Amino acid sequence: MCLKSCTRRVAGLAVVALFALGGAAESQASQIDGAGSSFAYPLYSAWAQPYSKDHGIQLNYQSVGSGAGQRQLAAGTVDFGASDAPWTPSVQSKQGIMQWPTAVGGVIPTIHVPGIQPGQLLLSGKVLADIYMGKISYWDDAAIAKLNPGLKLPHKQITTVHRSDGSGTTWIFTNYLSKVSPTWKKKLGFDKAVAWPNGVGGKGNEGVAAYVERIPYSIGYNEYAYVLQNHMNYARMLNKAGKAVEPTAESFAAAAANADWKGADHFDVVITDQPGDKTWPISGATFVAVHTHPGDHADRIGEVLKFFDWSFREGGASASRLDYVPMPKSVVKYIEQQWHKEIMNADGTPLWPAS
User: Fold this and answer.
1) pLDDT tens by residue, 172-207
2) CATH superfamily, region 3-104+282-342
3) In 3D, which of 208, 204, 230, 206 has the Cα closest to residue 219?
């Protein structure tokens, strides 16, 4: 799937959705509030306008990063939190929340190297980790050249760009690097924020994209829809099977195919560095969570469940256009069964199915 051919269409969807979100604050009685993942922002934006048009409920969603989304949910300032780093089962139990996956996507190495076209450069996980640790500091390093025979690589110093905020995109990216580089795992580990040894930090996917665009010979990492929207140059990856793969919905789906959604404890699923010839190695699910006993706010949580039920049933085409992988129907059925079991009205009756 060509990144360039999709760009104008995706950007248009995002602009329309932003228009709908901008008017959401006008009526508290007819909106639901969410915050968190910038990875999922293009998707929730694309769902927001048609849902508002059909149901009269606006989505006020703040793309503030997964860490902030988790904190706002814990503080009770939003109806749902959104994160690409799954809440652990113990945290879900302690906070009285339930999470579920909404879609699967990918994190993409983005580059600004004059003379190299989108998808021409091939990187491996080890090389990517070494670049971000500063072990590889020039684009014509022997390790990069070995992966790219015949490609003219400039003798220019690499500037790394990372997220400055707590980010699920960073969690997915560093989780992958921890799996493919023992040194990375030992020194830096994985989390929504890590102690980056060097480079420039940008807030949100937007900030990383802006820095990569502005700084020649830089490298960053972005959620796939941002790569599309910003016409960004990108690198292919060598996956666990030793195959060079492009970032596409098909390669994200190949990663998701190995996930045991039903067997996972409270949907605690990580799909980085999965096996398979077609698998994109830096894939991840994005999640939302709500309080399971919302008390006086049960009506608002009911509206959240209605929104995501509609999104599962009617939003698959939008998800696919943005190159996210919609959740399989069997998984959606299981998710809604868990809603019925875990999310309750003030009187202790199930909040789902909606009345």
Assistant:
1) 999 999 999 999 999 999 999 999 999 999 998 889
2) Periplasmic binding protein-like II (3.40.190.10)
3) 208
Q: Beta 80-83 vs 200-202: how paired, if at all?
A: unpaired
Residue 305 — φ and ψ, nearest 5°? -65, -40
Give CATH superfamily name and number for 106-267: Periplasmic binding protein-like II (3.40.190.10)
The helix/strand/coil state of 122 is: strand
pLDDT in tens, 304-353: 999 999 999 999 999 988 889 999 899 999 999 999 999 999 999 999 99
Q: Global pTM? A: 0.84
Which element (helix H / strand E) includes 325?
Answer: strand 325-326
Q: Spell out a b/e string for 266-293, using b for 16 or more CB atoms within 10 Å of the CB, else e.
A: bbebbbbbbebebbbbbbbbbbbbbbbb
Can the peptide bond before residue 101 be classed as cis, meaning omega within 30 degrees of 0? no
Q: Read out DSSP for 327-350?
A: PPHHHHHHHHHHHHHH-B-TTSSB
